[in-house]
C-alpha cells in the first residue's frame, strides 16, 4: 500500500518541484497549469481511492519523493524539525545530555556527556533504550528521540538493554550546554591547542576566549583542531577566520543561478593575532563552515593545513518559511574560497547508473593560486598542505563505519578491559588482530567500485553469449579483487586503528579524556607541533 502511495505521490509532486526550485524563471502559465493538475489529482485520489487514505501522510510522501531527486541537504521540515534545527544552532537545550542513534525499534546511546543526566543515571555508550516511560520505542511511529526531551527537572524512566540484559533507570532532564570549544590547553612547548567542534552562535566568542587565555599563559603558536567539525553558521565561520586575519579580507563567496544569492563575505572585526604561527587540522568529517575557515586560511597563506581532504560540502542552504510553522531548507548557491576554488565535491546534477552523485575526477581538477602564489586545487573539500593517512577515510574504512563495527567493537572492548588513564592506552597489533577476527564474526562485506563494474561486465557477457569464454578470466579477476580487499584491512590499518583508539578512549574518559590522549599521542598533533617548532619549515610551506 505504501509503495503505491509513493509512486502516485511522486508523479503528483513533480509540478511542485518546478514551482519551489525555479519560481518565476519558468513560464507562469505552465506553473499554474501544473499546480492545477496536482491539486485536482490530489483531491480525486483522496476521494476515490479504493482504500482509506491519509492526506497528511500522502503529502509528506509526495514532498519527500520530490526532494529526493535533488541534493541531500534540501529538506522539508515539519514543526518539530524546525524546532530541532533551532536547538542545533543554539548553545543550550533541555534533554538527557547524550548523543543518540535512532533505529527502527530502539534508541542507542552513542555518547553520554560527562556529568549530565544520562551519565548520572548510569547510561553508557552502546546501551539500547527500548522503552521511555510507558511507551515502547518499537511501537512509536514518530521520532522516538523526541520522547527524551522535556521541561527542565522533569523525570523520565527508561528501560534499556546492556549486553542482552534488561535494565531500568530514572533520570532528571536538565539544561545541556553545547560548547563550541569543548577543550583547550597550553601544551608543554608553548603551543595553544584549541578544539572547535561546531560553529554555533558562540563559536568565535569561545575561540577568542580560549586563545586570549592561552596567550596570557605564554602561548606562542596555535593548533586549531577542526577534525570532525560538521559546520554550522556561516557568520561564525567568518568571525573565527577573522581572529587570525585583518578586517576587510574576503573569506568566501557564493554563486547561484539567482542573482541576489551571489554574495561576497569579508571580515568586519579587528583580529586578535595576525602573526602567531597557526596550524589547522582537518579530516574527511570536517565540513561546510570548517572548510570555509580552512580554505580561507590556506588561500591567504595564514595557516598550514594538516590532515586529510575535508568532506566537500560546499552547498549553501537557506530556510524558507512555509505555512503552519513548517519550512523548506533549500540549497540556493555554492561556496567558493578566496582563490576561487569550489568547496563542493559531489555533483548532484550528474549521477551514475545507481543514482549516486558523481565526484569530480582528479584529471578534471583546476589549479588556483594562494596569495603567495602557491598552487592549490579544487575537486571538492580542502586538500591539506601535509597529508597524514591517520586522518583519511578510505572506502573500506567508511564501509566499516557504516556497519557500526568500530562502535560495537569499542563496546565489547570496554567491558573486557580495564584502563586507568588515557595516556596508558595503547591499541596493540594484537588488539587489531582481534578486531579483524571480530569483523569475520559479523560477516563484514563491502562492495568496491571495481566489483560493481565487474557485475556489469558479467551481465553484458551473459547477454552477448560470451560468459563461457570469459568465465575463467572473470573468476580470476574476482579472486584478485577479494584478495585486495583483505589486504586493504592491512594497508589501511593506520586510519582504522586511529578511529578504534578514539572510540575506545571515549568509553572510559569521555571526550575530555580523548583530548588528553590526543595531546600526548595523536599523530596529527605531533606533526603540527613538529612544523610549528621548526619555523623555517613552517615558512617554507607558506611561501610560493
UniProtKB/TrEMBL annotation:
The keyword Hydrolase applies. Residues 81-153 form the PDZ domain. Gene3D superfamilies: 2-enoyl-CoA Hydratase, Chain A, domain 1, 2.30.42.10, 3.30.750.44. The keyword Transmembrane does not apply. It comes from the Bacteria. It holds the Pfam family Peptidase_S41. Keywords: Hydrolase, Protease, Serine protease. InterPro entries: ClpP/crotonase-like_dom_sf, PDZ, PDZ_6, PDZ_sf, Peptidase_S41A, Tail-specific_protease. NCBIfam families: prc (TIGR00225). Belongs to the peptidase S41A family. This is S41 family peptidase. It comes from Salinimicrobium oceani. The lineage of its organism: Bacteria, Pseudomonadati, Bacteroidota, Flavobacteriia, Flavobacteriales.
